[in-house]
Amino acid sequence: QVQLVESGGGLVQPGGSLRLSCAASGFNLNYYAIDWFRQAPGKEHEGVSCISGRDGNAYYDDSVKGRFTISRDNAKTTVELQMNNLKPEDTAVYYCNARHPFLAINYWGQGTQVTVSS
What percentage of the chain exceeds 70 in pLDDT? Predict the structure, then answer.
């Protein structure tokens, strides 16, 4: 069964850190680009970060650049998003998406809640 499962969300104070994980099962994550999206209440779905499949190039939205780091461990079939210096505006449900580079195949996780509040 093909699955993507996010974990690592939670409640953290402003300035704190969280590490999100996106774990794949049922398919080979190595070939897929992985995107992290987030959606806050009443707001549009927005892209946060992306890492390519083959060469591991990373991209970040300006709102998280310098604070978030995306990495992948193809041996463990996981992609992680290290989030530092979190701000209240980072509060959202975070989703990972696996995107095949050539075929119209996308897999989505169920999301993990991140809440930044004092």
Answer: 98
